[in-house]
Structures are given as C-alpha cells and as structure tokens.
Amino acid sequence: MVQVSHQRKVIRALHAEGVKRGLDHDGLHDVCKSRFGLDSMAELNLQQAKALFRDLTGADFARPRVTLPKRGYGRRGVLEMVTPAHMEVLGRAFSERGWGPETRRAFIARQLQGREEIRTVADF
C-alpha cells in the first residue's frame, strides 16, 4: 500500500514536471510509450516512474523530509508548567554543588539549547 501511494506521488510529480516543460498528459503518455512500451501511465511501476522523473528533471525523486517539531510543540496534550517547588529543588541541587548564578545560567542554557529559562516540567 505504501508503494502504491508513493507511486501515485511520483506520477503526480511527473505530470507537474510535464506541465513545466510544455507536456500535457498525452505528451507524457507518448514519452512513456516510447521509453517503456506501455499503453498507459497507470501501468508504470515505481522504478519506471522514478526513471522517467529522473529523465525529465535530472534529479532523483525523493520523499520530502519531515522536520521535527520545535521543543515543547511536539507533545500532544497539556504541558505541565514548572512550579516554585520544582525551582526550589533545583536551587538546592545547585547549592550542594557550590554553583553560582553564572554557572547555573550556563548549565541551564546548555541543557535547553540556548534558552536560559525553565518553563515546563519537561525542561526541568
């Protein structure tokens, strides 16, 4: 099923590239028939469709990359905010290690990738 869905995406991309190059469906059909000897574009398998795409564009057809959500936005549900009790525990841990304000700030910024403020329990 995934391959069929991907194949449809490649065929749609072929049509879009065909339009860019002045080829309508019949023009793509003619290219398909001369290249692979098939009577219909629906008969193209995934490898043939990708080869035809490569012939038209000079590039391989690649699935779009999925970007990861920003920190704090990827979880479903409600984010639990940090409480004063959480901050008190963190303050005690810093004190036990003898860390001053600058060391604390640098540690938090390093752990939160540049942010210097603990907002959620996940950050904590």
What does this protein look like?
This protein has 124 residues and is an all-alpha fold. The protein is 55% helix and 0% strand. The longest helix is centred in the first third of the chain and has 19 residues, at 2-20. The mean pLDDT is 81.
How many domains? The number is 2
Q: Helical element count?
A: 5
The average pLDDT is 81
Tell me the radius of gyration.
27 Å
Structural class by helix and strand composition: mainly alpha
Classify the beta-strand content into a percent band.
Answer: under 5%
Distance between the termini: 42 Å
Shape: rod-shaped
Percent of residues in helices comes to 40-55%
For the biggest sheet, the summary is: none
Keywords:
mainly alpha; 124 residues; 5 helices; 2 domains
Topology:
Blueprint lengths: L1 H19 L4 H12 L9 H12 L26 H14 L3 H11 L13
Helix pairs in contact: 1-3
Short characterization:
The protein is an all-alpha fold.
